Design the sequence.
């Protein structure tokens, strides 16, 4: 990974460079302490060297920060695309069948409860994308910020649509189960009334 390679390069360069700069500074200090006739020039060269070294360290730090920011932005886009794909995949798995009798309707209801528990695991991914987008959008401007918001909006809208479809199916299955239970109760009551009628008609008529 480019970020890791540059971090290693920066660490090695800083270590080696600092040793070399410290060594030259010690030489310069020794020359000035000894009263070298070019002490003024030595001091000037020492200051110039230290300033150049500080500039180089700042450049490496800036480059490292830029790479870290670019990596974080790329990771956000990857996570957003992955979350969006998973949400849409789950929505495609949502069946339309409600069952043709009470047994199948209740079985589908149980399956849907497991499905809702399954999609709930996606909520953490969606929330992470939303939180990352809110943080990154403040760090960027222009097209990049707009692109971050577009990705977050696509994930949030797909998640809202999935939850809405899941809740709608839950209500539909509940209504279907209630309908079949009502029809079963009606059928049982009609059968009971038929039985009572047969018992009544089966008795001898009074003379």
Sequence:
């Amino acid at each position: 990974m480019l970020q890791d390679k540059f971090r290693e390069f920066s660490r090695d360069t800083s270590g080696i460079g600092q040793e070399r700069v410290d060594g030259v500074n010690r030489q310069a200090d020794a020359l000035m302490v000894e009263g070298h006739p070019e002490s003024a020039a030595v001091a000037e060269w020492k200051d110039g060297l230290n300033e150049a070294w500080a500039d180089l360290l700042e450049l490496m730090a800036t480059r490292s920060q830029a790479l870290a920011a670019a990596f974080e932005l790329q990771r956000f886009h990857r996570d957003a695309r992955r979350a969006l794909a998973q949400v849409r995949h789950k929505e495609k798995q949502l069946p339309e069948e409600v069952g043709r009798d009470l047994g199948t309707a209740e079985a589908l209801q149980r399956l849907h409860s497991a499905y809702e528990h399954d999609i709930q695991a996606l909520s953490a991914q969606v929330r992470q994308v939303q939180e990352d987008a809110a943080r990154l959008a403040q760090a960027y401007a222009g097209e990049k910020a707009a692109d971050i918001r577009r990705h977050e909006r696509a994930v949030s809208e797909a998640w809202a649509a999935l939850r809405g479809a899941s809740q709608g199916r839950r209500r539909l299955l509940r209504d279907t189960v209630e309908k079949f239970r009502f029809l079963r109760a009606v059928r049982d009551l009609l059968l009971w009334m038929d039985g009572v009628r047969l018992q009544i008609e089966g008795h001898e008529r009074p003379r």
Observations:
- Residues 59 and 203 are 107 Å apart (CA to CA).
